[in-house]
């Protein structure tokens, strides 16, 4: 299926590894021009080099999304380099784990405010061409988990923000959706570490998924690319759960 994304001007945060990396690749393969960021400058340079060598139009920058001033500055530079913005993906996260005020603040600034600031900075560009926005949330924000952590709370807040802001910017022709991956395994990710450090928890999680396996970053990215594309032109305010049936709640 042609996603009709050739020439799309896309911006994504956290694109050097895992789900964000695969979403970035899907957008590039669909014909989009891409500006991306991550905190690790070496990883950014490596991705940019690889993608441009494959003939893609991509430009990366080392940015801490939790630094509001630096983040807004990069968003402006990215939109200028692209000549606008038709698609914005907020993927980067402060990560899981418990902690005191500092950890709560980090997840708030990166997971939630990264989305808010990104949309506010790019809204005019997105409205100019009927753009689309995707926030990467998590099933950790939908159900109780054995680990109490700020990550879960901020991912839940992200879904509420997406739903409510979709009603506002929808009047300008901008679509806003969320995607909530379940347990997804990829090199260097949490589930790869859980498999080693918490094997009982890992196996119990696999057992509760009807398909008997964890998801892949590629599977999440395929769904994300569709939601961002014009083929999903009548979908907004949705939180798409991509978890192989792991969650059991009924959404009415």
TrEMBL record:
InterPro entries: NAD(P)-bd_dom_sf, SDR_fam
Entry keywords, A to Z: Oxidoreductase
Domain of life from the UniProt record: Bacteria
Gene Ontology MF annotations: oxidoreductase activity
Pfam families: adh_short_C2 (PF13561)
Oxidoreductase keyword on record: yes
Family: Belongs to the short-chain dehydrogenases/reductases (SDR) family.
Protein name from the UniProt record: 3-ketoacyl-ACP reductase
Lineage, broadest ranks: Bacteria, Pseudomonadati, Pseudomonadota, Alphaproteobacteria, Sphingomonadales
